[in-house]
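Sequence in, structure out. Go.
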Amino acid sequence: SPITIEGLTPATRYSFRLKQISTTGRVVVLARAYTTAESPSADPSIPIPTIPGFTVQQLLWTNEFNTGNSIDATKWTARYCGHSGSNGGGTCHNNESQWFIPSAIAGGNGNAVITTTRVDAPPGGDATCLGTNCAFTSGRFDTQGKVSFQYGYIEARIKMPSGEGNWPAFWMIGTDISTVGWPVSGEVDIAEQGGHQPRRNSGALHYSMTTSGCCGNHRYEYGQRWSDVDLSADFHTYGIAWTPDQMTLFMDRQAFWSID
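Output:
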């Protein structure tokens, strides 16, 4: 049977000794040496970030949007509006005035770009308006069922949109959203910004004190940071340091809110 040893360091040589004892008392000892593989998605060209108060060890996953004209379908799924938990945890829940359509998202040249457009008629196809009056197309994409993490430092470099009415977000949902629902799955909003407050970034934690149901058991806590600059004017980094007993949110690698 296979033997699995966890917690080994990539690209490191280890010596192993395996002792086998038969039912008759015969002993066999096997000695082997192996070198573990490189971290499968590590990119040595990307420097490991320095985060005050934490030690970031190795890069496990990255997507730089450098190839093709669309996002990588092996890593991301572009969404239409829909409330199913399997639809990225559900989209367009808050009477939002847009249709989400995959064609609003483009990739390449180092960026993934979501374009919001005012429209006079429904865009057709599988697009659905879940608000009272949809007047825009926009987009959302996520890694559900393709990439997930527990603990570590997670960061994106984002240029937020400008203009009142926008509410961009970079956020996470528990991988069990399709089975337990929200808020039992948990939700971590790493960055949320309203276009009417271009100098403010906020983060939040949604969770439940029970193991079922929605939504009287919903708990919500948040923190915010006001900047000296318009955050829609340029790129900034937004991140979370997640350990077993704490979450700390960062903007431009400076902590602005922490929760145990």
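Check: The first strand starts at residue 13 and ends at 21. Helices lie at 177-180.
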